[in-house]
Amino acid sequence: MEPSGTVNYLPILIVFVVASTLAAIIILIPQLLARSRPTTTKLMPYECGVEPVGTARERQSVKFYLVAMVFLLFDIEAVFLLPWAVVFPQVLKDPAYSSLKYVFYGEMMVFMAVLLVGLVYVLRKGILEWNR
Amino acid sequence: MTTDILLEWIIKIAVVIGILLTAVAYLVLIERRILGFIQLRVGPNRVGPFGLLQPAADGLKFMFKEDIIPLTANKFLYVLAPTLILVPALMTFIVIPYGDSITIFGRTIPLHVTRFDVGLLYLLALASIGVYGLALAGWSSNNKYSLIGGLRASAQMISYELALGLSIVGVLIQAGSLDLVKIVEAQGGWYGLKWHVFYFQPLGYLVFFIAALAETNRIPFDLPEAEAELVAGYHVEYSSMKFAMFFMAEYANMITSASLGTTLFWGGWMGPGVERWPALSLVYFIVKVAIFLFIFIWIRSTMPRFRYDQLMRFGWKVLLPLALLNIVITATLVLITS
C-alpha cells in the first residue's frame, strides 16, 4: 500500500544523499586513478594556445543583468499563475462558488494583461537590442 | 511508516538512478550513431558489437585523464559547479511516473518513486538550480570563453524557463493538479484523444517543446557551447570526470525533459492494453521517451544555430506571448465548457 501525505517527501532526502554521494565519488575517482603532472603552462587559462591576455574578470554587457531582472518579475507572475491554475478547475466544479467564477477568471486575466503591458514596455525600452 | 516502504524507496531510487546513468551513457552512443547515419558515415562501431562497449571505453578514458584545475580558478566554486549541475539532474526523476502499478509476489508496486501534491513544482524548482552550476562554472574558471558561455547560458536558460513554466499552466488548468500521477490519470480514456497534446494543448506543447530544447542547451539553442566561437563555453576549462559530469547532467536533463513532455502532453504511460497488462505501461513510456529523444537528435543534425540576439528575441517576443495566449485560451475554454 502506497503511503500518502508528508511522508512521501522523504525520498527527496534519500535521493539527495544518493546523488551527492555519487557526485563526490565521481569527483574523487580521477584523484585516485589519474596521474597528475602539473606544469605552469598546463594550468594557464585556455585561450586557443596564445598567452592569456589580461584576466577574465572584465566588464560584460549589462543586457545580461537586465534580462535577469526582467526574468525575476515574470517568474513571480508564474509563481502566481501556478496555484491559480490548479485551483481554477476546482472552483468551476464547486457549486458554492458559481457566482464567483467569473471574478476568479477575470482577476487573473487583468493580472496577466497588466504584466503583458509591462513586457511590451520593457521590450520597447530596448532590453533585447543587443547591438545598441 | 514501515521499513518495507523505506526499503522500496531505496531500491527504486537506486534502480532509477542506475537506469538513468546507463541511459545517459547509451544516449551518447546512440546520438553519435544516428548523427553518423544521417551524415552518411557509420559512427563509432569498433568497440564491441555495433560499438556497444563505446560508453565503457569513454568512461574509462575519462577516469584516467589528468584532472586539471587552472591556477587562476576559484578552486572551491570550480569543484562545486559540476556537482551543482549533476545532483539536481539526478534528483528530478523521482516524481515522474514511468508506469502503472504492477503486482510482483503479491505486492502492488506503483511504478513511480514517489508522488506528492507539488511534484511538478519540485521538478521545475530543481531544473532551475542547474543555472547556478552553469553560471558558477563559467565564472570560477577565470577564462574569457567560459565566462561568456556561462553568462549566455544563464540568460538563455532563465528566459526559456519562463516560457517553459508558463506553457505548463494550460495543462494544470485542465488536470487541476501538480501531482504528475494525477496529470497522467487525467489523460485516460477516449482512445488517447484526451492526451493533452490533442485535448486543447497543442500550442502549449509546441512552446514546451521549443523551450525544453533551449533548456537542455541543444541545437539550435546551443549558444552557451557554440564551439565555433566559444570553444566549449562554460566547461572549456574542465577536464576528466568533471567534464564528464557536465556531459552526464546535460543528457540526464534531456531524458528528464523528454519524460516530462511525455507525461504532461503525450499521456505518460497510457496506451492500448494497459488495463489488462500493467507492465505494458512501462514499455509505452520508454517508447514515447525514445521517440522524443530521437527527435531531439534529429533536430540537432538538421538545424543551424541561432544568433544570440535572435535567440533572446525569439524567447521573449514569440514564445512568452504564445505561452500567455495559451493560458488565456485554455482558461476561457474551460470556463465556457464548465
Verbal overview:
The complex is a heterodimer of chains A (132) and B (338). Chain A has 132 residues and is mainly alpha-helical. Chain A has a single domain, classed as Methane Monooxygenase Hydroxylase, Chain G, domain 1 (Up-down Bundle). In chain A, 60% of the residues lie in helices and 0% in strands. Chain A contains 3 helices and no strands. Chain A has helices spanning 10-33, 63-93, 101-124. In chain A, α2 runs antiparallel to α3. Chain A starts with 9 loop residues before the first helix and ends in an 8-residue tail after the last helix. The mean pLDDT of chain A is 83. By secondary structure, chain B is an all-alpha fold. Chain B has one domain (70-337). Chain B contains 11 helices and 2 strands, in the order αααββαααααααα. Chain B has helices spanning 3-38, 54-64, 75-91, 119-140, 144-175, 180-185, 202-215, 227-230, 240-265, 280-302, 308-337; strands spanning 101-104, 107-110. Chain B has a two-stranded antiparallel ribbon with strand order 1-2. In chain B, a hairpin with a 2-residue loop joins β1 and β2. The longest helix of chain B is centred in the N-terminal third of the chain and has 36 residues, at 3-38. Chain B is globular, with a radius of gyration of 21 Å. The relative contact order of chain B is 0.14. The model of chain B has no long low-confidence stretch (mean pLDDT 86). Chains A and B meet through α1, α2 and α3 of A and α1, α2, α3, α5 and α9 of B.
